[in-house]
Write a structure and sequence with these properties.
Blueprint: H1 2-10, H2 12-29, E1 48-54, H3 63-72, E2 76-82, H4 85-97, E3 104-108, E4 119-120, H5 136-143, H6 146-152, E5 153-154, E6 157-158, E7 161-162, E8 166-167, E9 169-173, H7 174-185, H8 192-200, H9 205-215, E10 217-219, E11 222-228, H10 239-249, E12 268-269, E13 275-276, H11 278-288, H12 306-311, E14 315-320, H13 324-331, E15 337-341, E16 359-362, E17 364-369, H14 375-387, H15 390-398, H16 413-418, H17 422-425, E18 430-431, H18 439-454, H19 460-479
Parallel strand pairs: 1-2, 1-3, 11-14, 16-18
Antiparallel strand pairs: 3-17, 4-17, 5-6, 7-17, 8-16, 9-14, 9-15, 10-11, 12-13
Length: 482
């Protein structure tokens, strides 16, 4: 120790040199070398690490894609990190703020407006592998289903890349319907119309209502067998999406075109000049299934969650997304079910012969954060994904529906109801609504509207008015904050 102090006293430069040598020796003893550490985006072999964060798939989904890309790019290591969806947004935004986030960030469509300042737009001519000067907007319009242009394009720039398009559809528990069919067939005068509907399935909401009356079984005021999970918010998965799908089918304007005002509570005018309340009409119809005073009563707050009730055979039908098929297979692969297209409102148009179905979409997208140090490499990987069959590989591994346009489209309600792949063709007629830059708050508001009526706090119009005001406040506070 005394010798060390003599060195320091003899010269500052020599002292500093000795200190560095001592620290280096200590680091070596601890198994680390602070002076030769590599950047966090380079592994021990010198390969650049491309990090992808996503909350919906396991690593195996990307196995072939990653292996092929790494084979063609031997200096790159793709690292896919699976995140918990419940904490995903908070964890992601914290990491991005600290500039330690991913190079590719997978987010749902409702998050894109909220986080567009955190990501870079898709580079122009991204899809132009053959150098034909095809713009992103032209490619999207010609190749992707319409909702992509509606939701992912802003200021003539593509904000994100769709991985797949999921849509709401009608799940039917075959075991429950066989039980109902047997009961009706044993009656003195079997209802042939209902038996036919059980066989074909409901193409319209009117068809579904007819089945509700035949399927629902109530004993001593308790629902023993439910026909369909509708009317509540607390125990129905995606209750807000289902309600808004009904509103959109009824031609309700949810949000004003300038994104400043919620309008789903307001009257609208038909071409005939007649004034009506499409939002309220859809809301009342949705609520009728949990209202004991209506003929549609078949569900209440005492029922299990809709997905669990369906798997357990407590409800004949639920409305859910394609990924629910995976949940069924994981919980009880013995459940027998079929999936039909989302029921439509017959004759909602002024032109009674017009066939314009409205479906409802939810989907995830690839984005590249502005904080990424590997943006060029990230886009290279995504270009590989979209140009080398990567999307086909992803769709095959996940059974999700690709976001591309196709030609074989149903031309009638009957045709829709008879098709076996509703998740495929519904992408072409799928819509959504602008959730604001605070989508969690607007979703909570919609669910609270449902609950406020069911708990008899207010009537349906008052709930709509209150909900619209709250959503308007959210819109104006966030849209004007830029």
């Amino acid at each position: 120790m005394n010798k060390l102090w003599l060195f320091i006293g003899g010269g500052l430069g020599i002292g500093l040199l000795v200190m560095v040598m001592i620290l280096a020796t200590q680091s070596s003893k601890n198994g680390t070398t602070a002076l030769t550490s590599k950047p966090s985006n380079v592994d021990e072999s010198g390969k650049t690490i491309l990090t992808i964060w996503q909350p919906i798939d396991n690593e195996d989904v990307y196995k072939d894609i990653v292996e092929n890309f790494e084979s063609e790019n031997p200096n790159v290591k793709v690292n896919i990190v699976i995140k918990d969806l419940k904490t995903y947004e908070r964890e992601s935004t914290n990491a991005l703020s600290a500039q330690i986030g991913p190079d590719i960030w997978v987010i749902p469509n409702s998050w894109v407006p909220r986080h567009k300042d955190k990501v870079v737009v898709v580079p122009e001519n991204f899809f132009d592998a053959e150098k034909k000067k095809i713009s992103n907007l032209d490619y999207v319009k010609e190749n992707f289903v319409p909702i992509v242009s509606k939701e992912l394009v802003a200021n003539n720039q593509l904000q994100a890349l769709p991985m797949f398009i999921d849509t709401l559809a009608l799940y039917i528990n075959k075991t429950v319907l066989k039980e109902v069919e047997r009961e009706i067939s044993q009656a003195e005068q079997p209802d042939e119309a209902v038996l036919n509907l059980i066989s074909t399935g409901p193409a319209t909401w009117n068809d579904l209502v007819k089945l509700v009356k035949a399927i629902t079984k109530v004993e001593n005021g308790e629902i023993i067998r439910s026909a369909v999970a509708l009317g509540e918010s607390t125990n129905i998965s995606h209750s807000d999406d289902i309600l808004m799908a009904m509103m959109l089918q009824n031609k309700t304007q949810i949000i004003s075109p300038d994104h400043q005002t919620a309008t789903f509570n307001l009257p609208q005018t038909k071409n005939s000049g007649e004034s009506y309340l499409p939002g309220k009409n859809a809301f009342d119809f949705f609520l009728s299934f949990s209202n004991p005073q209506t003929e549609n009563y078949t569900w209440n707050e005492k029922m299990a969650n809709s997905q669990r009730a369906f798997i357990d055979g407590q409800v004949a039908m639920i409305i859910d997304y394609q990924y629910f098929e995976q949940i069924i297979s994981q919980i009880d692969p013995n459940v027998t079910f079929k999936v039909m297209a989302l029921p439509q409102i017959q004759g909602v148009s002024d032109n009674e012969t017009e066939f314009k179905p409205v479906d409802f979409a939810s989907y995830y997208n690839y984005t590249v954060p502005s904080t990424s140090q590997n943006q060029e490499l990230a886009w290279k990987f995504l270009q590989y994904l979209y140009s080398s069959g990567g999307i086909d590989s992803y769709a095959s591994a996940t059974s999700r529906t690709k976001p591309y346009i196709f030609d074989d489209v149903p031309q009638s309600l009957k045709d829709r109801s008879e098709r076996n792949q509703p998740f495929r063709f519904q992408t072409l007629t799928a819509e959504n609504w602008y959730h604001s830059k605070e989508p969690n708050d607007t979703v909570k508001t919609i669910r609270n509207m449902i609950n406020d009526v069911n708990t008899q706090k207010v009537d349906s119009q008052k709930a709509l008015d209150t909900g619209a005001k709250l959503v308007t406040d959210i819109l104006r506070s966030t849209e004007n904050a830029e």
